[in-house]
Amino acid sequence: MNGVRNRASIMRTLSFSAFTAAFTAVLVLSLLAGYMLPAAADKDKNNDNDDGFSDLLLPNYIFSTNYYDSFGTPDIYASLLGDPEFERGETVHLKVNLVNKGAIYGFKSDTSVGTDKDDHSLSLKELKYETRRTTALGIEAEMISGTPYIEVKPDTSIQTMESLFPGEMPEHPLTFTITISNKAPAGVYYLQLPISYEYQSQVRMTTNKVVRLGLTGMDHITYYASASKTLLIPVYVKASPRFEVTEISGNLVAGETQAIDVTYKNTGELTAEDATVRMVVMNPLSIEQSVVRLGTIAPGESQNARFDILADSDAVIKTYGIDSEIKYYDEQGEITISDNLEVSVPLEEAERKIGAFELALAGIMILLIFIIVNVLRNLKKYE
Rounded to an integer, what distance in angstroms lies between the CA atom of residue 276 and that of residue 246? Predict the structure, then answer.
């Protein structure tokens, strides 16, 4: 009877021991899972302690100590290098310089070091690492045009920069290619430049406990935060005369010279002085006088030019696009030539006319018919 009781007691003890061991194992694994959390590795290439730990799960707060909290973030501004004023129709390469004006404006003690020399040494090291807080890392900038008059070339719209230190000029500016429309009104246009980057948000010094994790040579852990802002890049389109063809009257006729009237309007912002228009024609067309004086054309005013154009008799019946351009003096007294102004003129087939030969032939035929009829009448009389 006592043997049965002993066996039952032993079984209960073994069951309780097994349960305790299982519970302890689960608890230990849970604690380890909580202690091993991913953290961002230090991205500073100058850090001699960087042994490839960025690919590992780094120790969390349990294995590190925060001695100080620093205050300050990167503060990025953008400026355009060179002249910001451009002509209509230009394709230009914008060189944008980024400047980081971020500054550390304070520290706050988080853990007291007391009289411990080791802790004091670690705290001083952390202060050094904390000064990297204002460095912007992994910068990505995208230029966006909010107007249909300026196009940003897609293959240059996104630019990157590895890092931007406070107070330092980047070695190479960001370069974007834009095209300004020929129809862009003069004035200032603001291109948007959204940027995104990371910066150091916290540094914690590791304790000796990291050796338990198999990590040696790591004296600190760096955590990063993301940030973004949108910058504005002003671009100016110069004021100047701009011309459009507003009216065309007259048609071309195959084999004939016809007068074509063309009305040119100054839709720009400045006056064109002593303007002349030149029309350029090619076979099967020809022109008697290709240059016509228009005079001074103020903004909003129009001038008419007449051209006498000859079309070959065998010219194809279609609408012909004839090139023209206006030469004028600008406000600085310099000669300027406008963009090409196309004049579309239809060519019509000539009306068919009876020539002298056809008239002579018809007269002969009528005379022959008259003679024959007259001869027949005379024959009847003699009979």
Answer: 17
Strands 319-329 and 335-337: antiparallel
* Cα 117–Cα 120–Cα 121 angle in degrees, nearest 5: 85
Amino acid (1-letter code) at residue 205:
M
For 17-69, give the DSSP string: HHHHHHHHHHHHHHHHHHHB---PPP--TT-TT-SSGGGS--B-GGGEE--EE
pLDDT over 70 for what percent of the chain?
A: 78
Distance CA 112, CA 5 (A): 59
Rounded-to-integer distance, Cα 380 and Cα 383, Å: 5
Q: Of how many residues is the chain composed?
A: 383
Q: What is the pLDDT of residues 317-326, one digit of tens each?
A: 999 999 999 9
Q: List C-alpha distances in Å: 368 to 330, 365, 372, 380.
A: 74, 5, 6, 19
Tokens of 370: 């008259």
Give 24's pLDDT tier (boundaries 50, 70, 90). low
C-alpha closest to that of 179 among 86, 263, 74, 270: 86
User: 299, 269 in Cβ contact below 8 A?
Assistant: yes
Q: pLDDT tens, 305-317?
A: 999 999 998 999 9
